Amino acid sequence: MKLPSLREVATEARLLLIGIPVFLWTMIPIYHMFLFAISPKEDAFSGKLWPDHPTLHNFEIVFKQQHYFLRDFYVQFWNSTVIAASVGVLTLFIATAAAFSISRLKVPGGRMVLNLALFTYFIPAAFLAVPMYRTMGNYGLLNNHWSLILAMVTIASPYAIWVLKQASDKLPVELDEAAVMDGATTLQIFRLVYLPLMMPSLVAIGTYAVLLAWNEYLYAFLLLSNDREITLPVALGNFLAADDSPWELLMTTGFIYALPPAAVYYAFRRYMVGGLTAGAVKS
Amino acid sequence: MAITLSGDQALPGPPLSSRLTPAQVWGIVLLAPYLLVFLAFVVYPVCYGLWLARAPGNYVALYNDPIFARAAVNTLIFLVIGINIKMLIALFLSGFFAVQRPWIKWLSVIFILPWAVPSIPTILSVRFMLNPEWGVINHLIFSFTGDDGPNWLNDPTVALSMAIGVHIWKSLPFWTLILITGRLAISHDLFEAAEVDGASWWQKFRYITWPSMQTLYVTCTLLSMIWTLGDFNSVYLLTGGGPADLTHVLSTLGIRYLRLDQLSLAMASIVCAMPFVLPLVYFMMKRLSR
Fold first, then answer.
1. If you count residue pairs, one on A and one on B, with CB atoms under 8 Å apart, how many are there?
2. Spatial distance between the Cα atoms of B95 and A181, rounded to a whole number of angstroms
3. What's the pLDDT tens digit per position in A205-220?
4. What pLDDT score was predicted for residue B11?
5. Phi then psi for B181, rounded to 5 degrees?
6. Contact criterion met (CB < 8 Å) for B117 and A25
7. Residue A70, pLDDT score
8. pLDDT grade, residue A279 (50/70/90)?
9. CA trace torsion A130, A135, A141, A147 (10° rounding)
């Protein structure tokens, strides 16, 4: 084996000098959360970097709902799941239909709708939350899962339409023309030509909408308040209400809550990075 | 609608359905769900909110509320300092991650984590790390120096810096990813030619990388500004706006008024941000709809 030259060693050292801080910066808050989850209460508060007696006891408490704050853990987990799944399905339905209509059918006024959608995409989320909260009250939807589902669909759709429209434009027009020649109706083109070709973008957008809804805190915290209606992040926020918050349980629940999005992200990473970053900023 | 042919003889125009092709009818039907969502959950709330905020008294009340002035300044600090630091680091790291090494590829997979995992557990984790009595940071400071560390979230300047840090932690991966995409799009031949001519890394950056990435970088910075204005979590979950309501930004302030049942003040505080937001939005729309 050839020994690396001095120059190569120096380059590698410089890269490590960047890589190590980047690794630490990324991992420390996540590791700290994990550390709390596997520490007994005494160890968690002692500032140790590894507990003397690592344990899964905290997970047991969470899964058996053995704490006042965790009474409704499964219900809240289920709420988060149902809401995220509904947002994914509804966003895909609305955005795919709109993108097909604007890009393939060239519906009159489609361009304007796309611009309106883009405009929504640029309203800061926390700003829209204020009037949205009152609107949901007017519609009588507060404390109802539909309020959060519809709010998240409203927020996810503009970006979804934008990305799907960009992807649709890349499909050759000849495909539609050939299908029309063969006597296909518009719906048949949509189902048999368009949807199969759009599959990678649809996976990216579906994942994006599900993750957005699963991770959402502000809208969930404003729109839902009943203990059995709230989602997991709101329940986590409520832990802080107490003076002697059980931090080790908070971190354990938080760790469990963070696992599904991380898993979903890594499962669909290929689609997400290509599909989403391409649409995010057109250079 | 009627079409006048000759003199006073008016014929009814053809019915709408016969002027539209079947494909266009389907187009309207398929666009309708989004339009409904848009009308019900964007147009109506925004108009209703503006109507609530219309009384000039709201703006006098905001002007007289010291918390509002502080929040406006904090928002500016967040935008000007936070975003520039974030985007410069992202630009730098996009170069680092573009280097071909197996371990850098692995690191890039890990580096995405802050963006992929939800805010609330990670920001609360940072919040506990900064706890003056029990947090790991002050434990380490004590074990090295024997002195008590600072009370990180008790000083508004320090607390706001920490919130900016959390914001950078969370959103840096996304922008780095976008800038990597931009960097990889630059033709490799240019760098090889520069290499042959003996260009330094700075010359390569100055004359090849930066000119080709400038537009993307500016677009990203603008978009990041809009999204940062909507970032509620970094401040609310770390400091809750405290101490003494001195670390609020406009997004947390609006929600604070909302929680105090002062909806018209909440809307008015957001309306005050519009002179900053609208030019950004206009500029972004022009760039994206080219």
1. 283
2. 50
3. 999 999 999 999 999 9
4. 52
5. -55, -45
6. no
7. 87
8. low
9. -50
Does residue B243 have a cis bond before it (omega within 30 degrees)?
yes
DSSP state of A283: -
Per the CB < 8 A criterion, the answer to whether B230 and B120 are in contact is no
* Residue A110: exposure state from Cβ atoms within 10 A (0-12, 13-18, ≥19): buried
Phi-psi region of A76 (alpha: psi -120 to 50; beta: other; left: phi over 0): alpha
The rounded distance, in Å, linking the Cα atoms of A273 and A277 is 6
At B11, phi and psi to the nearest 5? -110, 145
- Whether B32 has a pLDDT exceeding 90, the answer reads yes
CA contacts within 13 A on the Cβ side of A63: 8
Read off φ and ψ for residue B13, nearest 5 degrees. Answer: -65, 165
Interatomic CA distance for residues B61 and B198, integer angstroms: 63
Return the top range by mean pLDDT from A102-111, A212-221, A244-253: A212-221
Residue in the structure block whose two tokens are 């992202």: B90
Q: What is the DSSP string of B228-278?
A: HHT--HHHHHHHTT-STT-S--HHHHHHHHHHTT-HHHHHHHHHTTHHHHH
Cα B167 from Cα B165, distance rounded (Å): 5
Contact across the interface for B93 and A22, Cβ inside 8 Å: yes
Tokens (6 digits) for A227: 């203990």
In angstroms, the separation between the Cα of residue A26 and the nearest Cα of chain B is: 6
Q: How confident is the model at residue B2 (pLDDT cuts 50, 70, 90)?
A: very low
B3 DSSP β-pair partners:
B11
Q: What is the pLDDT of residues A186-210, one digit of tens each?
A: 888 999 889 999 998 999 999 999 9
Structure tokens of B248? 């609020």
Q: Identify the bridge partners of residue B6 per DSSP, sorted by sequence position.
A: B9
> Residue A145 burial by CB count (10 A; 0-12/13-18/19+): exposed, middle or buried?
middle
A160 in contact with B at a CB cutoff of 8 Å? no
Q: How far is B231 from chain A (nearest CA, A)?
A: 7
ipTM (interface pTM): 0.90
Say if residue A260's pLDDT is above 50: yes
